[in-house]
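**User:** My hope is that you can spare some time for a protein that puzzles me. I have put the entry right below:
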Amino acid sequence: MRFLGRLIWASLALCLAIPCGALVLVAAILLDPVSSEALTRIGLFGFLQGMTDLASGIGPDAILVLAAGLARAGFFLLVLPPVAMALIGEAMNLQKATAYALGTGLATALVPWLMRGASGSLTARNLAVEGRVTALLFLAGAAAGLVYGWIAIRDRPAGA
């Protein structure tokens, strides 16, 4: 019975932590001038490319491919790190919300680097932008981990 209670409590904590991480990521991207400018440039390019594709006869199924790509990226950046850290933290019986925050923040920040692999095309300017994006991802992951930790360890007895 205790296991079922922990499972429900952890699920509730994840349901609150994941949107919190998403909100922090969106706010950080909008408030950071470099990220906001890069996002605007990419978004404008994507919009113009999409209009060109539609005008040349490529069907609207490309929009579905784009939506699937965004959903996949959102899953890997916003859902997978908090869930993985929740499983690790529950298995290790972590008692500090900061441990969840650091673990989730590091996992979220490392996701793009691990998915891309070794890339030799990073210039000094690109590396600076990548560093800012990594910091924003760490911040979003840390916020999600902190929310999860605050909620999840509240139900756990001190010695359990």
